[in-house]
Amino acid sequence: MSEVQSDGAAVEAELRTFIETLTDTETYQQFSEASEALKNDPEASALLQEFEQKQQRMQDGEFDQSVMSELKELQTEIADNETIQRQQAAQEELTELLQETNDIISDRIGQEFAQSTGGGCC
Known about the structure:
Blueprint: H1 3-23, H2 26-39, H3 42-59, H4 65-80, H5 82-109
Helix pairs in contact: 2-5, 3-4
């Protein structure tokens, strides 16, 4: 086995350990449970779907006062929906944990770890 293959295997093993550790955290568990609850809440799912459809209509150029007022009303309903709020809070906490993880890795390797390179090739 070449040194590169050996390094790749070691990195893969450490990555699996990292993923297991991450998915075992209380933060990840809360996010997973909140996401599952949202998926199983038809009222909350319908609210989010309707909100996304209204937003899409606005992006497609259907900007009028009725769509704006419908969006505002949906935003209020979303803010009052406990399932949605729980999922969004859990998602924010998970995002924060992942950002902290990224910062630690970046410090250790001396460069931005999860930096966007703009995609594409050539």
